[in-house]
Amino acid sequence: MKIVSHRNVKNNEIITKEELEMILKKEEPKIYEVIRVIDGKTIFLNEHFQRMNKSIELSGINYKLNLEDYKKSAQLLIKENNIKNCNIRVSFYYSQEPVTLFYFIESYYPTKEEFNVGIHTVTLKIARKNPNVKSYEKELKEKVANIMKENNAFEAIMVNQDGTISEGSRSNVFFIKGNKLITSPDSAVLLGVTRSKIIQLCEKNSIEIEKRPVKLHELKEFEAAFITGTSNDVLPIKTIDKLQYNSSENEVVRRVSELYLEEVKKEMEKKQG
């Protein structure tokens, strides 16, 4: 993770990049969120705020973040660095007092070709300690990074010990069979903000969606698949290991992508008004 902002925010106060790096080296905050900024506007900040508070609660910490402070910190970070398109990482830890850090990190967004053709993914038998908490797990992150590098993969799809698919290492996964979307139950995954938006949009637009455990051997039965995430939007999957899909041409994938991008557009227009 590379910090790209020179002026950063700690509890609504400006600190330097050097000060931030010293804090992160000493504390290594476990709870975090990643918020996308497009044209200087935060996307779905309220939803990220709510999920971060939920992660804090599930971690057993008796503390709640304040929404207005959260918004002010994000706005201050954007203003002080004049960065218009990048991801904000928000890190939280409690050591004598609660500390919330806001900083821009080097961000990768899929290319037009990756959206048009789809991405290569690999499966990996590994699981998070608590799927519903967005927390930093160093060993898991390093193992996943090595597997992805060895296989030249965009993402690793995590498989539980019982042979069920959970989610991507940094994304949620959806599968398509006929006109139906299938994804893991809420209890088994990180409740991604993009994932939640997709589910809401499908329900609103009469696109059938089923939450259930997905077995590894079922992968060959699906017609298409895609991942979702803060940086990825709705990103078609071309291959899972050696299995091939024509996801980028699938009508359901295209429809879901259109609906989500329209929702992002509405979010940006709302902040202009």
Sequence-ordered SSE layout with sheet pairings:
Layout: E1 7-10, E2 13-16, H1 17-27, E3 31-38, E4 41-42, H2 45-58, H3 67-81, E5 86-95, E6 97-105, H4 112-117, E7 119-125, H5 138-150, E8 155-159, E9 164-168, E10 172-177, E11 180-183, H6 193-204, E12 209-211, E13 214-215, E14 224-229, E15 233-240, E16 243-244, H7 251-272
Parallel strand pairs: 7-8, 7-15, 11-12
Antiparallel strand pairs: 1-2, 1-6, 3-4, 3-5, 5-6, 8-9, 9-13, 10-11, 10-14, 14-15, 15-16
Give the gist of this structure.
The chain is 34% helix and 31% strand. It is built from 7 helices and 16 strands.
The tally of helices reads 7
Judging from the principal axes of the Cα atoms, what is the shape?
Answer: globular
> Strand count, sense and closure of the main sheet?
10 strands, mixed
Number of strands: 16
Kindly name the structural category.
Answer: alpha+beta
Description:
The structure is a single chain. Helix 6 (193-204) packs across helix 7 (251-272). The protein has helices at residues 17-27, 45-58, 67-81, 112-117, 138-150, 193-204, 251-272; strands at 7-10, 13-16, 31-38, 41-42, 86-95, 97-105, 119-125, 155-159, 164-168, 172-177, 180-183, 209-211, 214-215, 224-229, 233-240, 243-244. Strand 10 (172-177) and strand 11 form a beta hairpin. Strands 7, 8, 9, 10, 11, 12, 13, 14, 15 and 16 form a 10-stranded mixed β-sheet that branches. Strands 2-1-6-5-3-4 form a 6-stranded antiparallel β-sheet, sandwiched between helices. The model has no long low-confidence stretch (mean pLDDT 93). It is globular. With 273 residues, it is α+β, with helices and mostly antiparallel strands.
